[in-house]
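ok here's TetR family transcriptional regulator, seq below lol
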Amino acid sequence: MVRRTRAEMEATRASLLATARQVLAEHGYADTSMDDLTARAGLTRGALYHHFGDKKGLLAAVVAQIDDEMDARLQAISDSAEDPWQGFRQRCRAYLEMALEPEIQRIVLRDARAVLGGASPDAQRHCLTAMQGLISTLIAQGVVAPADARALAALIYGSLAEAAFWIADGAEGADGADGAARLEQAAVGLDLLLRGLLVQPLRG
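and the structure came out like this:
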């Protein structure tokens, strides 16, 4: 009985998360009604409050789920790269490219920033720790100039995060550039930024 109840609770939570992702991606946080969301999931409002506390808690859970998926995609890039430096560059570029994906753009880069104030401290620490590890490896290999890996990770992570927000907000940017144009501009800047880390100038 306990095992079945736990499974049912997990299924209810998963259903709410899946439905919330769809509704939030389609309508955004401000225009998402909890009654409409729970009705679409075939569940009660009480179930939502039991699992997530409130609408903001549901958003935070959806963001955490998407963040985990983004991390897995980025890690796959690092794991499959034959050259650690190119893998690092590709990983940074891929993060910026994700800012054009509708679900990530609306939920993670717009609503989460407006409602939750951005990424959670745990998510930020995870990203910084992962990037610090990559940079430490590149320094040990003599690819990146010796420096404090944590400081470099903070600088690069901060730059990528702000660039992603800028790209996501590019639909009607004051500079007239849409998100795709901003991505290309950011990619050029990223290459310049990363090239400055190298012990020797980038070839090719």
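fwiw The radius of gyration is 20 Å. kinda neat tbh
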